[in-house]
Amino acid sequence: MVRKVVTELEETFLSLLLVSMTLLVFAEVVMRFGFNAGIHWAQEVTLLIAAWFVLYGASYGIKAGVHIGVDVFVKLLPNKIHRALTIIALGLCLTYAGLLLYGSWVYLSKMKMIGIELEDLPIPKWTVMSILVIGFVMLIVRLLQLGFRIIKGEINGFHFTDEAEESMEIAKELQAEESQRASDGQDPQQDQHKGTGHDHCCTFILLFGCIFIGMPIAIALGLSSVATILLFSNDSLASVALKFLRQHQSITPCWRFRFSFCPLRSCPPVVWQSV
Fold first, then answer.
1. How many domains does the structure of the chain reveal?
2. Structural domain span for residue 197
3. Which among 3, 166, 204, 215 has most CB atoms closer than 10 A?
4. Which helix (H) or strand (E) element contains residue 257?
5. How would you label 173-188 residue by residue, b for 16+ Cβ within 10 Å and e otherwise?
6. Cα 79 from Cα 231, distance rounded (Å)
7. Does 172 reside within a domain?
8. Does residue 200 lie within any of the structural domains?
9. What is the pLDDT of residues 53-88, one digit of tens each?
């Protein structure tokens, strides 16, 4: 009974975040195109809602078994070996979540000490970015629950959703976008990190190693990236957590549509300030 209520609350919370983000973007586009006006805080709030949706949804994905992963190899192994590899994968997942939880705590502590507010709203920045800590705490809780079920023998590994076809479509779209940029005379790699080669090799080795022991692809990507950053750069965990949040704020393609076609885009700054 309690588990059902908690599940319904989580689903309701995530649904409210998604609906709020959609309605806010819709209202902003209507006001821009229809009334030549706008909500000055709409973009910032939408990006923050998107971050909350993704970071909280990651833990719910573990619970509901909707993460994408490759379990073809581990399913061929005996049950005991399968469970052992899954426990190792869980340990790596917990390490990843723990590192970013620590970095998030350091970052939020500094934001609270400095007292920085949001750009468009008089709200302390650390309060809305607390989803960094909340999200990783929830992820750790879900991973521990999954590990407990594996130890009890209820399941052998992660439960993944079948999203292979959709993933291939996304890969094709990204490839087409890079080809388009190349045909336009732009370097597809111009905005990417230029490493020495050793960091790239380390990332791919860690990534494929984590994937083949049954770890969710999203967490495997995060863990391999964080490990590479810590090994080959001087970035702190706090800066890594901030970059993590900003990357997950960029999942709202509606804003690209808005700024690409907005009639006020070419207006002078005075017009933007008046809006």
1. 1
2. 2-164+193-274
3. 215
4. helix 253-261
5. eeeeeeeeeeeeeeee
6. 34
7. no
8. yes
9. 988 888 888 888 777 777 777 778 888 888 888 888
Round to whole Å and give the CA distance between 36 and 263.
8
Dist. CA 21–CA 17, nearest whole Å? 6
Q: Dump pLDDT digits (tens) for 164-184.
A: 556 566 677 777 777 777 776
Dig out the tokens for 267 from the structure. Answer: 């207006």
CB atoms within 10 A of CB 24: 19
Distances (CA, A) of 96 to 56, 78, 92, 107, 122: 16, 27, 6, 17, 33
Q: Is 129 helix (H, G, I), strand (E, B) or coil?
A: coil
106 within domain boundaries: yes
| Sequence-distant (≥ 6) Cβ neighbours of residue 156 within 8 angstroms | 79, 82, 83, 86, 150
Strand partners for 117:
124
Distance (Å, whole) CA 125 – CA 108: 9
Look up the pTM and report it: 0.67
